[in-house]
Amino acid sequence: MGEAHPGAQNPGHDGVTRMSAALTGGVLLKCALRTRSPALQLELGELARECVPLAESVGAHAALETDETYVYLFSRESAAVNAAVLSRAAEEAATLPSLEGAKIAAAKLLPVFDRPGASRTVAPQFHYVVEMDVAPEHEADLNAWYDKERMPGLAACPGTVRARRFRNPDGSPRYHSCYDLTRTETLTSPPWLAMRATAWSGRVRPHFRNLKKTIFKRLFESAL
User: Fold this and answer.
1) Which residues lie across from 71 on neighbouring strands?
2) Residue 209: half-sphere exposure toward Cβ, Cα within 13 Å
3) Domain count, the chain
4) 3-state class of 90 per DSSP?
């Protein structure tokens, strides 16, 4: 648990859209406001270079139905992200004009799974996030389900550009899965719904805790 899944691959988006490198983790900033400021990309690039060890890329996504923006500050060495880095990143982010007045929480993300999707050659427009904890006695089964069935199956659905999963080693929610999508209709497509209906899915689902699902509009993801 916490190591890269053996099936992880380079997402290979060169020439399509800027994406973070495969199997990068780092800092997740959960910002309690919805922003689409054109200045945010430049501001986050400067923030990442200043606060995150070996900063590799930044990304931002604005929730469609709630006042939230999720910001990723990816690092080439996510293990170097510690409590001091998280605290400073959150404090400095709160001073950015594009995030003015927002309550900001920071979490460490360690990469677990990363695979290009069936629609890897298409620029993603949306970012779907599933966050959860799990009953401790079912954690091994959840991880096996996610990495052997769930993530590969959803990556293979038409409309999925990339499927990634992260672990937060220090807090809750412990698991963070995210999917870059070409369209929101992917979430209700027959292939996607079929993955929800498997026997293994039915076995692990009752043991989810603190489940949160959010669909975001992708603002940008860019290398530094």
Assistant:
1) 29, 60
2) 10
3) 1
4) helix
Global pTM reads 0.91
Q: What's the token pair of residue 13?
A: 């988006």
165-207 per-position pLDDT tens digit: 999 999 999 999 999 999 999 999 999 999 999 999 999 999 9
Residue 212 lies in a domain: yes
Domain of residue 139, residue span: 25-223
- By CB atoms closer than 10 A (0-12, 13-18, 19+), residue 188 is exposed
CATH of the domain at 134: 3.30.70.100
- Who contacts 99 (Cβ-Cβ below 8 Å, separation ≥6)? 31, 33, 35, 40, 43, 69, 93
- Residue 216 resides in a domain: yes
Residue 9 within any structural domain of the chain = no
